[in-house]
Recover the amino acids of this structure.
């Protein structure tokens, strides 16, 4: 008997088992078991013209694929050894049933994969949307920090295990310390207008970062904020250094002798004049201090 026929015999006994009889032939057209007169009809017996019974649902796709490989290998062996074409047409239907079941299971698997891919795509969309919202808020924090005179730098910082398109990072120095956020290159446009330059990470971790965020400007809830200027830059050159605008505002307020409310009630133009005067005084003091150092 050719090898293909033998393997088909194996397959029909493996994929159409009868409980308690592993050697049962599901395609036996004899209604009674040979040698057992009076035995009940075989529920899996072959009735001419009918389709084969369904393959046992417990037989998985991997097992059926392996059987297909066996059949292909057997065909090659029979061909090389010049075996006669002895395959029973009824046995050939085993492969038809196996092939049909493989296609059915592959279709189910493909549908499951498509469903999982759709869900994964939705998760990615939600994640990307969350990052976009977060980075829009980070961009706002950075611009507000600049306006208040705090240091902001955008640069690239590599992290081991992270892809290069996540190396973009914005550093903000709040009154409570440095905070930073990495962003994807696709959202770098949110930080295009912020100052570029080198920044050194101070070692803060995520809990520390958000502790600094939550405690920054906490005193402003109790003390009124001093208004500055919407026209002056966030940093002013004084004595060869870049002094934050907030420092200038504090100096001008101190020199004014006004209360916080009175200072904030000043017309913006008047307040800016006082700030310009404070800048001039601070530059003069810095120059005098420099001359004194040189004289000594």
């Amino acid at each position: 008997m050719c090898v293909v026929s033998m393997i088909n015999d194996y397959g029909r006994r493996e994929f159409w088992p009868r409980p308690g009889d592993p050697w049962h032939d599901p395609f036996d057209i004899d209604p009674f078991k040979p040698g057992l007169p009076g035995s009940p009809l075989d529920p899996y017996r072959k009735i001419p013209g009918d389709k084969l019974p369904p393959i046992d649902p417990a037989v998985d796709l991997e097992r059926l694929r392996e059987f297909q490989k066996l059949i292909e290998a057997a065909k090659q062996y029979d061909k090389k050894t010049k075996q006669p074409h002895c395959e029973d047409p009824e046995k050939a239907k085993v492969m038809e049933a196996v092939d049909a079941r493989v296609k059915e299971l592959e279709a189910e698997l493909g549908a499951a994969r498509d469903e999982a891919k759709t869900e994964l795509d939705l998760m990615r969309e939600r994640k990307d949307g969350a990052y976009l919202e977060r980075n829009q808020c980070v961009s706002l924090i950075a611009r507000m920090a600049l306006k208040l005179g705090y240091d902001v730098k955008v640069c690239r910082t590599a992290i081991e295990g992270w892809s290069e398109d996540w190396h973009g990072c914005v550093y903000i120095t709040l009154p409570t310390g440095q905070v930073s956020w990495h962003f994807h290159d696709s959202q770098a446009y949110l930080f295009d207008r912020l100052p570029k330059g080198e920044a050194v990470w101070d070692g803060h971790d995520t809990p520390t970062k958000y502790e600094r965020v939550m405690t920054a400007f906490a005193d402003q809830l109790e003390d009124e904020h001093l208004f500055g200027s919407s026209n002056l830059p966030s940093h002013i050159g004084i004595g060869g250094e870049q002094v934050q605008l907030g420092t200038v505002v504090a100096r001008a307020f101190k020199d004014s002798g006004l209360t916080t409310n009175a200072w904030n009630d000043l017309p913006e133009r008047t307040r800016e004049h006082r700030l310009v005067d404070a800048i001039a005084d601070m530059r003069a003091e810095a120059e005098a201090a420099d001359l004194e150092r040189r004289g000594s």
